[in-house]
Amino acid sequence: MKGVKFRFVHEEIGYTLHTHVMKLLVMKDILVWTCSTCASSFKQGLTKPHFPLSKDGDRPMIGDKVTVHYTGKLLNGKKFDSSMDRKKAFTFSLGKGQVIKGLDIGVSSMQRGERCILLCKPEYAYGPAGCPPKIPPNAMLQFEVELLSFKGELLTDDGGITRRIKVKGEGYNNPNDGSTVHVHLEGYCGERLFDSRDVHFVVGESEDMGVPLGVDRAMEKMQKGECCMLYLKPKYGFGKEGRAQYKIGPNSDLVYEVTLINFEKAKESWELGLKEKLDFSAGAKQKGTQYFKAGCYLQAVVQYQRIVSWLEMEFVGKEQQQTVQNFLLVAQLNMAMCYLRLKEYALVVENCNKVLELDEKNEKALYRRGEARLFRNEFNLAMSDFKLVLQVNPSNRAARSQVSICQRKIREHHEMDKKTYANMFQKFAEHDVKEAEGSVATPVPAVTVSETEGHVFHNVNICFY
């Protein structure tokens, strides 16, 4: 370290590590201690080298999926674990208690591409118990860590809503569907701020207040006091129509910074009596129809799903059984129609199947399932559904027309297959002919069989044609 100039660097870090997690940056032989709380313990600091960090200086946030390479050692240098040895990077959710506290705190201070050493006191590692047989009790540990990448938490299977938590909320209580929430939100389209306000809305009905579905759906994952960034794909923003009110064009990605100030939970399903469930179901049915007519199909689905969640497991007497079943049939049929509009054909089939479990001759369910199967090019299955519709209602002209379409599609598909296979076999035949012609026209160079081990001829030149 001779000739290296030293200076304090803790002011530059911009992030306060806990006093029990000491962070060191390593480049070649230069060791840099950047713990902002430990400067008073030393008369001189150490210099900070330049690393291949991310250009924007962005750091992972709580809940992000972070991917790292690490090597864990005891202070005597004995290695107890290494992702490098396994040749497979390690991924975990930051701040969720999936790793020891020292790693959670340390990695949260790093930038993409950064390498560092973390020294973790026992209370931020494995504590008095240790982790036998490799880690003894009350062991201080050293981790060499490289932050490879990080990305936000996906709140939907299709990746349409991504959350990154800036400030962790209080406790473990979340709003549920139907809760009244008070939030502060700021909406961005690109770099432009188009919406900034405090607003109250009912979870599941945010559209009424001009708040997109993606923000609405994220509420059930948030805690009071939480501030997060939400990255919304058009499906969960303002869709293909955009929103003239905010000058948002079609199919625009949006970013919202949302703070959950407070909320009042709605009653859970098990807290509701049958009369309340039926009354709420009637309201949800009306609200769903309103959203459907406005083209807000996902918002409509939320309403119909409420009905199913309230009544699907409800055991009632014969007097109310028909009323409950009618609500369930309507909810699932309407969800099937919404998913048809959204081109989610697998979900159309799923909801129609549930209707047919209750009413095997339901004309609308058979027809909508047939439509979904036709769109999925399952022509034989679709034709079977439309024929079942005709058995239920022989005068259904639409179903009769669809049978004809299926028959035509099946014929076209067969003709296409015949042409495809004919072309394939023709190409194979042409290839075989060319290979045969090539083998006659191109002589193989003479070989001396005596050079070929084990041959019965010796010292004879043979030329193959």
From TrEMBL:
It is an enzyme of class 5 (isomerase). InterPro entries: FKBP4/5/8-like (IPR050754), PPIase_dom_sf (IPR046357), PPIase_FKBP_dom (IPR001179), TPR-like_helical_dom_sf (IPR011990), TPR_rpt (IPR019734). It comes from the Eukaryota. Keywords: Chaperone, Isomerase, Repeat, Rotamase, TPR repeat. One of its GO terms (molecular function) is peptidyl-prolyl cis-trans isomerase activity. TPR repeats lie at residues 363-396. Residues 63-151, 178-264 form the PPIase FKBP-type domain. Its EC number is 5.2.1.8. It catalyses: [protein]-peptidylproline (omega=180) = [protein]-peptidylproline (omega=0). Pfam families: FKBP_C. PANTHER family: PEPTIDYLPROLYL ISOMERASE (PTHR46512). This is peptidylprolyl isomerase. It comes from Esox lucius.
